[in-house]
Amino acid sequence: MKPWSLLIEILVILVVTITNIEAEKHNKNEKERNITTQVSVKQVKHFLSNMLEQKKSINVVKKKENLLEEKNQHKLRMRGIRNKDLWKINKNYLKNQEKKNFTDEGDQLFKKGVKILQQSKSQKQKAEAYILFAKAADMGNLKAMEKMADALLFGNFGMQNITAAIQLYESLAKEGSYKAQNALGFLSSYGIGMEYNQAKALIYYTFGSAGGSMMSQMILGYRYLSGINVLQNCEVALNHYKKVADYIADKLEKSEGIPVEKVRLTERPENLSSNSEILDWDIYQYYKFLAERGDVQIQVSLGQLHLIGRKGLDQDYYKALYYFLKAARAGSANAMAFIGKMYLEGNAAAPQNNSTAFKYFSMAANKGNAIGLHGLGLLYFYGKGVPVNYAEALKYFQKAAKKGWPNAQFQLGFMYYSGSGVWKDYKLAFKYFYLASQSGQPLAIYYLAKMYATGTGVLRSCRTAVKLYKGICELGHWAEKFPSAYFAYKDGDIDSSLVQYALLAEMGYEVAQSNSAFILESKKAKILKKEKMYPMAFLLWNRAAIQGNAFARVKIGDYHYYGYGTKKDYQTAATHYSIAADKYQSAQAMFNLAYMYEHGLGIAKDIHLARRLYHMAAQTSPDAHIPVFLALMKLETVHLLQDILFFNFTMKWQWMKLDNTLGPYWDLFVIGLIVAVLIFLLRNRYG
Fold first, then answer.
1. φ, ψ dihedrals at 558, nearest 5°
2. What is the per-residue pLDDT for 645?
């Protein structure tokens, strides 16, 4: 059991954090999280005093037991009974009974905390759940201790304490906790609060995966896929990814998978509040206003967002049903179909009811709606409210698939794959799975991966199977850390944001790798030493670049050019810029490469090629027009001067080389001079 002082420290941090919630109500970001109330400080203080009293009472009980034991021993001696088995059995029974009661109470508190956490919609409720976890952890509940360790690591409620988290994880690891093994592997791989040791990290991940950690399996899959501190091995990567993908697919079949927005910090760091991945609070209020005014399309959109919890909004079945019903009354076929879907799957607002689902699906299908047709197909396929009828199911799926509905395309693929009501036909199954996968249908992607992994109906390809399985694995519940990491960054909690993004980066998420590198590059984080930030950022940019991130590829070129986190190497920088320019049509890479050709940095000097690349950069991106104009003005001016002054008099005027007379930054001086001349001319023209 962990020290009392650690628990009290955790709870005190909770108290301080909760009392500050009320002061942050004016912040719009907190509106999104629905913070409206405050936990009583007196309640937590009362809890702390009770814990201390409990500790005292336990000590009193132990003293009484010792006194009773001494009396029993004295009586036994007086009676001449030398056999001490009787009082030993009595003592062990009392201890085991006390331990059982203690454990049962801890389990109940943990389950209660989990239930509150699952149903919570406010920070107050979440804080109450963690108070229960703290109580349960004090009673030796390992799962509660894992929750508290995670809270300390990721900075839930501003209570980040990595040293305390490591202490808890180490004690949990000794008890066989696979979650603790995974966490220690992650911390070792980055050197956060621990020694940077990739070999030790690999051992922790191996033990974690053996114990059942899906996150460790995913990390090992990515490492074997990319050859990170292990020999690259596609088959081993496939084995790890398949285990995780099977777990995720089972969740998806039960409609438990929720897509998560992955905000790129590199896209608009200056204006994070208006990122398209997260719905701004003011825009949400405007949409609500339009919905109330009768805008059917907005009603359906808000219903969908609340149904699955998208764009930073909480999942709220009651609001979803409210908007769908309004739109359905106005005649929206999509809304009718979504109501049918809600009743088919069942939830708090719309309890499972096959008859009601059939009614709304039929209403939508009669209007030719693809979602409604697919819904009727599902009812006949699984025999929900109607007898199982594969022929009817096939008919409805085909109609919906022709209208481009990916879920119907998947169902057709599954029927041909499994031979449900039709002859098995792997070629047709592959066709429909592929069509559905183009729209991102996750189960279709999963079955495609299965077919490529086993060579069923298609030529076996380990690389393709791993790539597809990896995409499914990234739909796991751990992706929920993306929005929490984003909001932490937005609120200025850089360390909390970095830890969450770094863990996701370790699992192979390209967006998390670039976001982690971006944060490290800013040197705002405090959990790593500053001298380690550029090398670690370089490593993460490199991993993101390998996964196809064009911005990261340019960054790798920049790091080699300036010598950030690695040795200065113009030739390697030019290579990375060339890849970004040729493969991703990056305007920035074209501009940088043009500059290097202009000055002969790492590559042979070529003015004509530099000029061409500058023009290509301007054509690729409108933002490059002004920089390219200035660069070309400077290039042409210098080129003209060189033609006039040096072409015929190279030997005579060698002492006038610009590098010697104006210094290494003479080109910047020339650009400044050109700008000054342009400003002067414009002022005279309009003056």
1. -60, -40
2. 60
d(CA 204, CA 181): 5
pLDDT at residue number 66: 55
Residues ≥6 apart with Cβ < 8 Å to 460:
452, 453, 454
| Side chain identity at residue 313, one-letter code | L
Other C-beta atoms closer than 10 Å to the C-beta of 341 total 23
Local structure of residue 606 (DSSP, 8 states) = -
Listed as own residue / partner, the contacts of 366-371 with beta carbons closer than 8 Å and 24 or more positions apart are 367/333, 367/336, 368/333, 368/403, 369/333, 369/334, 369/336, 369/337, 370/399, 370/400, 370/403, 370/404, 370/405, 370/408, 371/333, 371/334, 371/337, 371/338, 371/341, 371/400, 371/405, 371/407
Helix (H) or strand (E) holding 645, with range, is helix 625-645
CA distances from 413 to 246, 406, 575 (A): 18, 10, 44
222 is written with which tokens?
């990515």
Residues 629 and 627: their CA atoms lie apart, in Å, by 5
Beta strands per DSSP E along 563-652: none
Supply the Cα-derived Rg of the chain in whole angstroms: 32
The pLDDT value given to residue 390: 94
pLDDT at 45: 39
Contact (CB, 8 A) for 219 and 211: no
- Render 160-204 in DSSP notation, one character per residue: --HHHHHHHHHHHHHTT-HHHHHHHHHHHHHTSSS---HHHHHHH
Q: How is residue 451 written in tokens?
A: 């077919």
How many Å apart are CA 590 and CA 584, to the nearest integer?
A: 10
Angstrom distance (rounded) from CA 199 to CA 197: 6
Say if CB 397 and CB 430 are below 8 A apart. Answer: no
Q: Are 281 and 312 in contact (CB under 8 A)?
A: no
The span from the CA of 189 to the CA of 434, in Å, is 37
Query: Which residues, 6+ apart, have CB-to-CB distance to 278 below 8 Å?
Result: 261, 263, 311, 312, 483, 486
Mean pLDDT by 10 residues, the chain (687 residues): 50 50 44 37 42 46 52 50 50 52 75 79 76 84 89 85 92 92 96 93 95 95 95 96 94 66 70 54 78 86 82 80 90 91 89 92 93 94 92 94 94 95 94 94 95 95 96 91 90 93 96 96 89 94 95 96 93 95 94 93 91 93 89 81 58 50 62 76 69
598 in Cβ contact with 635 (< 8 Å): yes
Q: Helix H segments across 523-566?
A: 530-546, 550-562
pLDDT on residue 129: 83
Q: What gap in Å lies between CA 574 and CA 560, rounded to an integer?
A: 9
C-alpha 11/C-alpha 662 separation (Å) is 64
Answering whether pTM is above 0.70, one says yes
